[in-house]
Amino acid sequence: FFLPKVACKCGRYQDDSNENRSDLSTILHEWQVEFLRSAGIETTEGLIIAYKTKARKLCDEMIDWRSRRKMEYMRETSCFVALHIWSRTAKVVLHSKGFDFSTFPFNVNETDSIIPDESFCSTVVSYGESVNL
């Protein structure tokens, strides 16, 4: 559920420099890409921006999307963790390809430890710990 597809069995990143760095399908599984596209997110850059600006809405949409497809139920916190992992993976891939993060509407490095939208929920997983907002 949580993991993107970029890691091979040995855990090392599979880098194919010929792949489009903005293409979600280069880093995520098919169902993950399908969900994000249904939410209007088409690129890795869009994933990072959406995660930082509307994580709660995306979590709610993921729960509904999975329910409509009769997929296993996941709690809101689990959806948030998945989005966090996908967003961080997108950031690593973009960084490895030399992406200029100064074009983003926020400082990516300063917002890493900040909950994307403060209305999210009372607890979230951050660096392996529960944090009360």
Commentary on this structure:
By secondary structure, the chain is mainly alpha-helical. It has three helices and two strands.
Helices and strands, with pairings:
Blueprint lengths: L29 H9 L5 H25 L7 H21 L26 E4 L2 E4 L1
Antiparallel strand pairs: 1-2
Helix pairs in contact: 2-3
**For the report, how would you describe the main beta sheet?**
2 strands, antiparallel
Radius of gyration: 15 Å
Widest β-sheet, arrangement of strands: 1-2
Query: What structural class is derived from the secondary structure elements?
Result: mainly alpha
Question: Concise description?
Answer:
This protein has 133 residues and is mainly alpha-helical. It contains three helices and two strands. It has a two-stranded antiparallel sheet with strand order 1-2.
What attributes characterize this protein structure?
single chain; 133 residues; mainly alpha; two-stranded antiparallel sheet; 2 strands; 41% helix; 6% strand
